[in-house]
Amino acid sequence: MNIQNRLKNSRLGSVLWLALSIAPFTVGCQVDVSDGSSGSLDSDAEEVRGGGGQGRACGGLLGLSCRSGFFCDYELEAMCGAFDQTGTCERIPEVCTREYNPVCGCDGKTYGNECEANGAGVSVSARGECAPPPRQECGGLLGLACDEGSFCDFAPDAMCGAADQTGVCVPTPEGCTKEFAPVCGCDGNTYSNACMANAAGVSVASSGECAPAPGGGVGDACGTRGAAECAPGLFCDFPPRADCGSFDLPGACAPMPEACTFQYDPVCGCDGKTYGNACAANAAGVSVASSGECAPAPEKICGGLLGLECDAGSFCNYSLEAMCGAADMTGVCDPIPEACTEEYNPVCGCDDRTYGNACAANSAGVAVASRGECRR
User: Fold this and answer.
1) How confident is the model at residue 36, as a pLDDT?
2) CATH number of domain containing 143
3) How far apart are CA 376 and CA 374, in angstroms?
4) 363 — phi, psi (to 5°)?
5) Under the phi-then-psi rule, with left for phi > 0, alpha for psi from -120 to 50, and beta for the rest, what region is 327?
6) What is the DSSP code (8-state) at residue 161?
7) What global pTM score does this model have?
8) Which site in 5, 101, 122, 226 is 20 to 30 Å from 283, CA atoms measured?
């Protein structure tokens, strides 16, 4: 047996032959082996670089390829080259029968028979059709999204994901018929048929056209998926246990007050703003989240080892001790001032520029490094 073949058909040999392909051998150098055969190292090194021919090793740790017109054929036990197992280069068949004896290819697709898979340059992974891919759930409490090209399809009894029910990701159709079999989509719009709704990335809520959604009257449920919005002049009033509609718990439509007292009895609205009293919140169309003023929003950390950034309209403000974020120290996101005085109280910014005062530096989105002008 040729020594090159014995080397190439082993995992270690793949590594050795890559080294041989790079080493500066003398052109035409011959190697004699015990069985009297000889071969050109130059030609075999070239084969490693350009892809192997019939019967040569492929795949493996180095991902050795086959020549044009050949494909890497793996034994079933090799699991399509898992764990760096190797296959052998075989010629791609040009003609196949139409016999239906399905196989699952190493690309995860089902072929009519082994020859058809090999004709596509694909080795066989298993006999029989490929198992369907596991279903990807979507929606639910976490609001799981689908990948591009698919949409979240809810079963009829899932009510478009109400009460945090889940759906499954299915491919978005690329073409639909013009058949008129109207359905109501989970977005409240009517579509000509279910396929048209799905092509728009929308699951079907019910058969038939959507019913007109008049504004909810006093006492009607509101604030949940599928519930009507309150009519003009009404707002969605959530009871304390509903926690402003969290977990899809409903509120009830209630009239907006037309006049309120000036009594200061602060409440925190469901919009995160503090109002002078509950009446003032309701007059703004906002339900009350809790008594008392809203708690200040937690400071947002920025900078540090991860280089955390601030949202638009704010900048990373470092304390003087944080040395502009040196040694991975963090700052906090503060709003960028919109106006500053002309007082001259110079500071040196973290960008090594001198500003008239700290506000001027902050309005440029720059934290203060030190008091006084920057040293040149």
Assistant:
1) 42
2) 3.30.60.30
3) 6
4) -65, -20
5) left
6) G
7) 0.34
8) 226
